[in-house]
Specification:
Rossmann fold; 4-stranded parallel sheet; 11 strands; 67% helix
């Protein structure tokens, strides 16, 4: 079958089958579940798709089956395998999703109940998912049987085997991810049952059942496909054992596991160091520890699989290659963490000389030092093993030094170090030259950062350069010894130009070999035969092994000497009249010499002779993409350092600092006119701008010394005008050093930021801030109500969150009002807290937010009377709320529709459910 026709048949079959399958599922759901109450169009459309789509599928699929039955090539075609495994994947993925929802419905998992389609009851939801499971399961089984029959006829190899590996390892990855995530979250739930807790839990976490369901679905999915992958590896196919896709799966998993364990271990170490530095604890170890356990097990198990694969590889060189890749991968993670920690600590110490060692710098010092402690053993242990093997004598050491993964590792960090030194040196010279030309002198912070980063980078560069020079020296010595022991004999025919070119190339590769080409016709056959018998490696054109070859230049004596010699023979596919080579590219003489030299090196190293193909367009594109990726990684690693050097500070923070100062001065201008003002700030950007930069900017028409427009120019112009309107004295205070006004300003800024949380706020990361600087827990509470006025039925719902820990509560009653329910829900939420907390309370009701924050004080002062003298409504509820909030520091925030937290919507759903109950 032609490739185009094959594409047509299987593409039409895939599209028509998927359309028909989901039409059948939709039709059965509408017919069997009365609650859906489908309109006529919901019945007519799937019937139309089935009537048209099913015959189209059957016609094309049976056509493809007939063609596959005629020839073995068609049955084993890669495109056919791609259709079969792609179709099985398209059925199995929704099968797993429906199985998850079915089990979740049976176990009443809240996450499943919240997204139950069409408001179905549990019984209807079971039928809803069972129908899909039955149809998808039958079709998956049919295609699985077809693929199995094809495999019996034509064993999978090449592209067909790759398609199967993609299918197997893809679902193995999905199952593994579900299993690990479920284990981590279940461990976290178990740990939170012990120790003190900010939020009281009366029952299991609402997410517990969901994670049990995830484990029930994910673990069998992973085990089934992973055991399949293991059976393929243990089978007779050498291609499976050499699969690059399997190695990518294993090493990618090891990388993720190692990175997760190291990064979260760094978080725990940072917590301990924070306490040693006098800072309050931050985060909760129960959030991070399950991640370390889960990622550590993931890392350890797949590292064991890699070692087992190496043991089964059968060849020492392949075993060593598998081990090397693992060692350098882990060492790279450890060294990256170590260098990040060293650079961070250097930055902290330099800034401490300029700004003082406040709590902010102590926090950074804790984190960067933790990165050093976590990264050092992760780097040094595998690196020492790799280095010991690289300097070992013999073929094992030669292979370790010559390995591509070692060169990538060494040159990658050499590249990072070189780029860091380059950028730092350019900046230092730029600052010095600018100073000499009349600009402001460089600051201690700027030059200190550049020098510190350069020192670290030079250390990395010198060390890895020393390793590379040592590798090169040992490799040269080993290569000369191997080449001398090889005793090479170069044989040539005709004018001898090829033989001389080859000898010259070998001499350049290993000087001192003293080779002379043996040219047939210039020496006697007996002399040549004697030399060949004593040689260890014979190199020459293929004709030297053929009696009468090269137009009779090869005698029977020479050809028999070549054949009978115990030496290894390296025959080259040179051109000859009336002779052609199948499967071999036609090279010119220079390319053939390069291939021959490479083959000699491989032979001397005890390796199999393999072709060195010139780079194609795809390889060139891949290399360019890889280089760009390395550049991106390098900029990611050294970008923060370069950014700090050039004062490229966070633009939003700078704008807010300028705006705050300008707003304060403008308010004074409007209220009291010109006055003496003392402005205190911990902003280095604002302080340097006012005291050092702004006059030079004005003289240069608001341009920097490099000629570029000043950033935030409009705000700087406004602030400059306002400072001229007052007698302003600027004072710099250390951040987080206890200055009462500065600390109050920080609190106000924090509360303002929290009040602007968007509806789609990002999910909090593990180890997120859950305590204030003085160690008080921070809890966010969202409350909402729902009422039916005619029936006087009301309900309230509340969501309490600290870090990633969430608690939901709700309640309802008859004969009540929305306002009463709102206050009642707020009081009940506060009573749930077991210890004094810093509470950020969100409500979209002005009655609660304004009442609790300001009105209630005035009501109490007036004896619970309004301005007009009327009794305050819901007095008992307000008194109850005051009593519940007394142990806590509560900030009452009014959430607008466009910036309400996501938890407020969930609170509304809880309130609506409470009304129904």
């Amino acid at each position: 079958m032609s490739t185009v026709r094959r594409w047509y048949i299987y593409l039409v079959s895939a599209i028509s089958l998927q359309a028909t399958t989901w039409a059948v599922i939709a039709l059965l759901r509408n017919l069997f579940i009365s609650r859906l109450n489908p309109p006529p169009a919901a019945i007519a459309f799937p019937i139309a798709v089935i009537i048209i789509g099913l015959p189209v599928f059957l016609a094309h699929w049976l056509w493809g089956q007939r063609l596959a039955g005629r020839t073995a090539d068609e049955r084993g075609a890669t495109l056919r395998r791609f259709y079969l495994y792609g179709t099985m994947a398209a059925f199995l993925a929704p099968f797993a999703a429906n199985a998850f929802d079915l089990i979740g419905a049976l176990l009443q998992a809240k996450s499943v109940l919240d997204r139950r389609p069409y408001g179905l009851t549990t019984g209807d939801a079971i039928v809803y998912h069972l129908l899909a499971l039955f149809i998808l399961g039958v079709l998956w089984f049919y295609h699985h049987r077809v693929a199995a029959e094809d495999a019996k006829t034509i064993p999978k190899a090449g592209g067909a085997a790759t398609v199967r590996r993609l299918y197997v390892l893809g679902f193995s990855t999905s199952g593994l991810a579900m299993t690990v995530a479920a284990i981590i979250l279940l461990l976290r739930w178990i740990l939170f049952q012990f120790g003190g807790d900010v939020i009281r839990y009366n029952g299991p976490d609402v997410g517990l059942t969901t994670e049990i369901v995830r484990l029930i679905v994910g673990a069998p999915l992973w085990l089934t496909f992973w055991r399949w992958a293991q059976r393929l590896f243990d089978g007779p196919s050498e291609e499976e054992r050499e699969s690059a896709l399997r190695k990518f799966y294993l090493y990618g998993t090891v990388f993720i596991g190692a990175l997760g364990a190291v990064s979260n271990g760094t978080g725990i170490l940072a917590g301990f160091l924070r306490r040693l530095l006098g800072l309050s604890p931050e985060g909760d170890i129960r959030m991070v520890l399950p991640v370390i356990v889960g990622m550590g097990v993931l890392w350890a198990y797949h590292a064991f699989v890699i070692r087992d694969d190496a043991a089964k590889a059968g060849e020492a060189a392949r075993q060593a290659g598998v081990r090397r890749l693992y060692l350098y991968l882990v060492a790279g993670i450890g060294l990256s963490a170590l260098l990040a920690g060293l650079s961070g600590d250097a930055s902290v110490l330099i800034r401490a000389l300029d700004e003082g060692f406040g709590s902010g710098l102590r926090d950074e010092l804790a984190w960067f030092t933790a990165a050093i402690i976590a990264g050092l053993p992760v780097w040094i242990l595998p690196w020492r093993q790799a280095q010991t093997r690289a300097i070992a004598p013999g073929p094992a050491g030669d292979g370790a030094r010559a390995s591509t993964v070692r060169k990538i590792y060494l040159y990658f960090f050499l590249f990072i170090a070189t780029m860091t030194v380059l950028s730092s040196a350019v900046f230092i010279l730029f600052e010095v030259l600018s100073w000499l030309l009349g600009a402001d002198p460089p600051t201690l912070s700027n030059l200190g950062h550049s020098i510190a980063f350069s020192v670290i980078a030079v250390g990395v560069w010198v060390y890895h350069g020393f390793i590379l020079r040592g590798d090169h020296k040992l490799s040269e010595q080993a290569q000369v010894t191997r080449m001398e022991d090889l005793d090479i004999a170069v044989v040539d025919v005709g004018d001898g130009r090829f033989g001389r070119a080859l000898v010259e190339a070998l001499e350049r590769e290993s000087p001192g070999l003293g080779l002379e080409p043996l040219l047939l016709g210039q020496s006697s056959d007996e002399e040549i035969a004697t030399r060949l018998i004593l040689a260890g490696l014979i190199i020459g054109p293929w004709m030297i092994a053929v009696p009468g070859g090269a137009r009779g230049a090869v005698s029977l004596v020479v050809s028999q000497a070549v054949m009978n010699s115990p030496a290894r023979k390296l025959l080259l596919p040179t051109r000859a009249p009336e002779w052609d080579w199948a499967g071999v590219e036609r090279w010119d003489a220079d390319a053939l010499v390069r291939q021959a030299v490479r083959a000699v090196r491989q032979t001397a190293a005890g390796e199999d002779v393999r072709l060195a193909r010139p780079l194609g367009a795809g390889a060139v594109v891949a290399i360019i993409a890889g280089a760009l990726f390395l550049l991106l990684v390098a900029l990611t690693l050294i970008g923060p350092a370069i950014g700090s050097l050039f004062n490229d500070l966070d633009t939003t923070n700078n704008q807010m600092e300028l705006y705050a100062a300008a707003a304060a001065l403008a308010l004074l201008e409007g209220l009291v006119g010109r006055c003496r003002v003392n402005v205190h700030t911990d902003s280095r950007y604002l302080r340097l701008g006012i005291t050092e930069w702004i006059n030079a900017w004005v003289q240069r028409d608001w341009r920097t010394r490099g000629g570029q427009l000043v950033k935030n120019q409009d705000l700087w112009r406004l602030l400059h005008r306002l400072t001229q309107a007052h007698d302003v004295t600027w004072h710099w205070v250390k951040g987080h050093a206890g200055h009462p006004l500065n600390e109050r300003a920080d609190c106000l800024a924090t509360e303002a930021r929290r009040a602007l949380l968007h509806l789609h706020r990002p999910q909090r990361e593990a180890g997120a801030r859950t305590f204030t600087d003085d160690g008080q827990p921070v809890v966010e509470i969202c409350v909402k109500v729902s009422c039916r006025g005619a029936e006087k039925r009301g309900g309230w719902g509340a969501v309490l969150r600290t870090g990633e820990h969430v608690k939901t509560i709700s309640g309802g009653e008859l004969g009540t009002t929305a306002n009463a329910m709102l206050i009642r829900g707020a009081a009940e939420a506060l009573r749930t807290l077991t210890k004094p907390c810093r509470v950020i309370f969100y409500s979209d009701a002005k009655y609660l937010a304004k009442g609790a924050s300001s009105w209630v004080t005035k009501w109490e002062a007036r004896g619970w009377r309004t301005k007009s003298g009327k009794p305050v409504a819901n007095q008992s509820e307000w008194e109850s709320l005051i009593e519940a909030s007394r142990p806590h520091d509560v900030a009452w925030l009014l959430a607008r529709e466009d910036d309400a937290p996501a938890d407020l919507a969930q609170a509304g759903e809880l309130a609506a459910e409470a009304v129904e109950q």
